[in-house]
Amino acid sequence: MGQTITYPRPDGSPVTGFLAEGPAGGPGIVVIQEWWGLNDQIRGVARRLAAAGYTALVPDLYRGRSTVEAEEAHHLMTHLDFGDAAAQDIRGAVQFLKARCPKVGVTGFCMGGALTVLSLTMVPEADAGVVWYGLPPLEFVDAGKIRAPMIAHWAEQDGAFPIDSVAPLEAKLAAAGVAYTGYRYLAHHAFANETAQGPGRIAMTQYDAAWAQIAWDRTLRFLGRTLG
Questions:
Q1: Is this model's pTM higher than 0.90 or not?
Q2: For residues 94-129, b (16+ Cβ closer than 10 Å) or e, as one string?
């Protein structure tokens, strides 16, 4: 289930993405990749959301490139213009879904979690946000521009985004009056990524099926309340 499509950015440039369609007339959600790129695992997330009733679109932020090597993933991520990705690729994806869906949310994992936070400051069309264990540098977060409700899932043993960096972000969101709830899990980075297990995983990551299920249950309840 799913297909590759092309949609326009606000500046008119085309972007490809993976679209998994839910029921006609239902809500939509933009899914933002981890640093690996638009791979089979993130397509699986889109399909999961489609099965739950959402039309899900994953923008191809790396323009056709993906990897299973951490060094190459780091290289791809560091060469990504996060501001452009949020204001153009992701906003264009939200606008594309808004043409067919009454409400549209944004969610992302790891790098995509950081981009979700940024997108909520740059995409006024977004109706909700779900952040999974990723946040941008605090100085880039203009919390006063966030109008959509949001939740976040943080890993207390996260080696990529230390848990100590979460409280300052949450304080900034609270000061701006953002409708926000943060959840913390006794887990490692990428605890909801089912491929982060076994000998192929990188050291800082570890899938945890129990915590992942709880986080997904909370996510779907939140999306049900905010997107319908």
A1: yes
A2: bbbbeeebebbbbbbbbbbbbbbbbbbbbbeebbbb
